Amino acid sequence: MSTASTSTALAFRHRFEGPFFRELMLGGIKHIPSWLQRLTMPLWGGIFYLLLSSARRAVLRNLAVILGPATLWEAHRRGWSLFRQYAQMITDTYKVYLGSPLVMEVESLGRTPELLRLLRERGGILATGHIGMWQVGPLLNGWQELPPFYMARAEEPNPLVQQWEQRFREHTRTIYTSASPFSALALAKVLRERCVVGMQIDRVLGDHTVTVNLCGRRARFPAGPALLSRVTQVPLVPSFFVVDDREGTRRLVHHVGPAIFVEQSSDREADIRCATQQLAAVYEQIITRYPTQWYQFFDFFDVPEDRANHTEDEPCVSC
Hints:
Elements: H1 19-31, H2 34-51, H3 53-67, H4 72-97, E1 105-109, H5 113-122, E2 124-128, E3 149-153, H6 159-169, E4 173-176, H7 183-192, E5 196-200, E6 209-214, E7 217-222, H8 224-232, E8 236-244, E9 251-256, H9 268-289, H10 305-310
Parallel strand pairs: 1-9, 2-5, 2-8, 3-4, 3-5
Antiparallel strand pairs: 6-7, 8-9
């Protein structure tokens, strides 16, 4: 683990993020017919693809890593496709927030009775990322089979945006990890009560990070999920919701990975690094399968040289 600056791993901020633009977006979602919304998604995605040059460049760099080099035309085509799908994801998500039913078939892969029983008996951390429709998962009826479900979230940097978003988050149990230095204690408490906590694994918001291998490159991940799992002795369960329309029908597919148990050896950092590498391996499978639903608007692979050199590279036997 390391403690260098984490500025490049923060979520991308831009001038269209204030409450005014979000309220404008919400008005369109409420009043524009769904068929027209879908028809105009390429337009909205294209507008923001042109306007947000910093995000565009970061997306092109990230896609080049996971998909390989491309011609100028192909690179921009897949970058624009990511922005288009992001616009559709935002629209679908806020529709659900507003009470509309999710008009997609939901399919689960890996959600076995044994895994559900494990989560009911021990609780667990559902490790997810900014892929597909990650915000919709906790709202689906399938979670009723689990113990009480909490979401670990960072507060919005803009207090006005945080206030605006709060009305959509009141229906879920939320523990804000950036609001208090005691948030880790709150998370540990609910996990010891055999609850389930959803945590992001692809946003570095503090100093405790792990540098692991991803798509043949080095990338930083937060150490928090694996550390919390080790302390509370609950499993880490990869959990990703993606939209799959390759067969002509839009489906929301829930990919659930096998449970990961963090080792309890005398080398805490090695245990955390090993578990995080296992999470990253599942994460890599998802982002390479659904690359234009990987919503990272900063350079994900921008790891300073001293950070990469600091991280030990010995493989762990269970990875």
